[in-house]
Every structure is written in C-alpha cells, then in structure tokens.
Design brief:
mainly alpha, Growth Hormone, Chain: A, 19 helices, globular
C-alpha cells in the first residue's frame, strides 16, 4: 500500500509545486547564510567582527538547530509541509529587520539562534518530505537534484540582486568607501531580501499543494515507536556520516569570496562576483545531476562527488594556486563546487534506496540531521580559527586540508552505503 500511495502522489503532483518548493527552499536561508557567503569580506567590516566571531554566530545557530532537528522531524510527519514552511519563511523575514540595524555581537548571536529555530524546526524536514512526495518511487534523484539545483539558482539570483543593489549605493572606488556607506548599501540588500522572502511564504501557503489528500502523507500521532524503528535502519546511521562530511565541504563555500579577496587580491565587488559565480555552479550541478542520475546508480554518483571534493581540496591545500594562476584557480573552484554541490543534491536522494519509509521521512531527516549538520556548530569557528591564527594563504591551505580529510571519510561511508543497497 505504501508503494502504491507513493507512485500515485507523483502522478498528481504538479510542476508549480516543485517551483514553489525550490523558491521556498533557498529563500529561507538567504539572510543567515547566502548573503554573508557572497559578501563575506563586506559583512565582516560592516558588523565589525573577526572570522572567529562570525563563526560563533553560526555555532549558536547550529546549537539551536541541533535541538530543532530532533523536535521538528516528527512535527513534519504530523502537519502539512506547506503550512509549516510558510510560517517559517515569514518568521525568518522578520529577523531581517533586526539584521538591518547592524546590532552588536551579542544581539547577532540571539538573532542567529532565532534563525536556527525558524529555518529548521518549522522548515527543514517538511522541505525534504515535500521533495520525496514529488519524486515518487522512481525519480528521487530528479527530485532532489532539481530541488538543490533550483535552490542554487535562486541563491545565485539573490546574489546578483545583492551585487546590483550594492553597486548602486557604493562609490565607484569600492576600497575607499566609508563604513557608513557600506552599511547603507548592505541594509537595502537586507530589506529587499526580507520582502521577497515574505512573498514566497504567501506563495508556499497557497500553491504548494500536491493534489492529494494531505492526510495520506501524515502520521496520525507522534510516538517513540517510529523513532526507534527509524534508528534500526543502517542507512540512517550511514547518512549521518555522509551528510556530516558533505556539509563540511558545503561550508567551505562560505570563505571562497574571502579567498578571492585576500589571496587572489580582488576588490570587494569582484570578490562578491566570485561568490555569485560559485552560487551559479550549484544550480548547474544540481540540474545536471537531477536529469541524469536516475538512469544510473545514485549511490555511486554520491561517491564520485566526494572524489571531486578531494581533488579540489588538494589543489587548494598544496599551495599551487597564486594570484598569477587565474585559470588554475577557477578550475579548482569549479572542481570543489561540483563535488560539494553534487553531494548536497544527492545525499537525501538515496533515502528511497536505503528503505526509509515515506511516512517517517520527517523523523528520519530529524535524526540524521542531528549528526549530519553539526558542522553548523564547529565548521565556522574552526575555519575562523585557522584563518585568524595563520593570516593569508597558509590559513586557507589549512582549511582546505580539513575539507580533504572529511571528503575522504565521506567517500568511504558512501562506498559502504553503495555496497549495502546496490541491489534494487
């Protein structure tokens, strides 16, 4: 009965369901993560923070998120995803009003804790469950590939909008711009983003409907039995390791625009453009993976993504890249981005092969994410410490060695997962 229900849902779910899911899936993370990633150097200046201090904001977010994953997972199995996601979008947008005041470090930590609740407790597991509903039993790779690719495109478009707004309000000589001028420009970026996020919340509530009775994908009650049954699955434990390692790689994209600024010696606008370029690699990777991966073994493609991350990490960590080696720099950026974004597009796509029931998706995602997304707690401060303790290229090399080690571990876990579930 479970499989029949799964297939029928795929047939009834419309294309605009996926479009709204994609828009919502990235919009909720624009304020806490996407804008700071693209404008890394600018953000450190306008908020007057060090790399370590900014990383600690992420740690507060991660600690709150850790609890939210556990509690929010079962909630996603009981209530309709679209309603939970819409509320999360509106609450996240409200946080932008505080973000735009350039508050103190302490207030920023409280804000990031608030965002850890709004973006995870009410949003994360419902989004993953909604993607599984759209993918059905035969198109999980397509569902998650298009979701992450589309989210990447949404983030890149927000980045382009941000760079455009920033260039309108900043003087032609970017390096000579006053701090107040930079703050004014970044404030308008925050306000515009908050408005767009709120509108997407309305679209999510009204239009992200699967065309079926929502009760078919909901659990009648939350119980410890469903948690214990999910924890008995080997795929759940392996995905904890795989996602943890892949997410350490994903967090590396937070410093890529900073690398362009401090090592490649680009100005703030050009370094932000590099950050936006990386954002565009995400949709390209996700869309290509989504269109082809279901024809092959999805678990094997997950392994290949970690191999690419290792290659890119070694290229940066060994110090071959210098300001004069522009071609090698962009080749290495592309290699890491493809590996990181492919893994991100695929790791929840293997849940179907790992025999995780659809009705317990929220619970499984919550439990997996408790371990898988701990880099939200430790990656930022660790990267910040490595960068601040060894200013310049050496600090970045240490960060990329860290990426390489985690990618190797993720690759090993992916091999085990592939061998366990390679048979249909």
């Amino acid at each position: 009965m479970f499989l029949v229900s799964f297939d029928s849902m795929k047939e009834k779910t419309s294309w605009y369901y996926l479009v709204v899911l994609i828009l919502a899936g990235e919009a909720v993370f624009i304020l806490p993560f996407v804008l700071p990633r693209i404008f890394r150097s600018t953000v450190l200046d306008v908020y007057q923070l060090t790399n370590v201090e900014w990383g600690l904001n992420g740690s507060v977010y991660g600690i709150v998120a850790l609890v939210s994953y556990v509690l929010g997972g079962p909630i996603a199995d009981k209530y309709p995803p679209r309603k939970l996601m819409a509320i999360a979008l509106w609450m996240t947008a409200l946080g932008g009003l505080v973000f735009a005041t350039f508050p103190s470090f302490g207030v920023l930590q409280i804000l990031y804790g608030y965002w850890g609740f709004t973006t995870i407790f009410l949003f994360w597991a419902p989004m993953i469950k909604a993607a599984r509903v759209w993918g059905g039993s035969t198109s999980q790779g397509k569902a998650f590939g298009l979701l992450d690719g589309g989210r990447g495109l949404t983030g890149a478009l927000f980045g382009l909008l941000g760079v455009f707004i920033f260039s309108l309000f900043i003087s032609k000589n970017v390096d000579a711009a006053l701090l107040t001028e930079r703050q004014e420009a970044f404030k308008y970026i925050i306000y515009c983003s908050s408005i767009i996020i709120s509108v997407i919340g309305i679209l999510t509530w009204l239009f992200m409907k699967s065309g079926i009775d929502e009760k078919e994908i909901l659990s009648p009650k939350i119980s410890t039995k469903q948690i214990s049954s999910v924890l008995k699955l080997p795929s759940v434990w392996l995905l904890m390791i795989i996602i943890l390692c892949a997410y350490v790689g994903y967090k590396i994209t937070d410093i890529m625009s900073q690398y362009a600024r401090e090592v490649m010696l680009y100005d703030e606008v050009k370094s932000a453009q590099v950050g936006t370029f990386i954002q565009f690699l995400r949709p390209v990777t996700g869309l290509l993976v989504g269109l082809i991966v279901d024809r092959f073994k999805i678990t094997l493609w997950l392994l290949f993504s970690f191999v690419a991350s290792v290659i890119g990490g070694v290229l940066f960590a060994t110090g071959f890249i210098e300001p004069s080696t522009t071609s090698l720099y962009f080749l290495s950026v592309i290699t890491i981005a493809v590996g990181v974004y492919a893994a991100r597009a695929l790791y929840f796509g293997v849940m179907q092969e790992g025999k995780i029931p659809l009705v317990y998706t929220g619970t499984a995602v919550g439990l997996i994410s408790v371990v898988g997304y701990t880099p939200d707690i430790f990656a930022g401060p660790t990267y910040g410490y490595l960068l601040d303790s060894n200013p310049g290229e050496l600090g970045f090399q240490n960060v990329f060695w860290m990426l390489t080690v985690f990618a190797l571990i993720g690759g090993i876990a992916s091999i085990i997962y592939h061998r366990l579930y390679r048979k249909k």
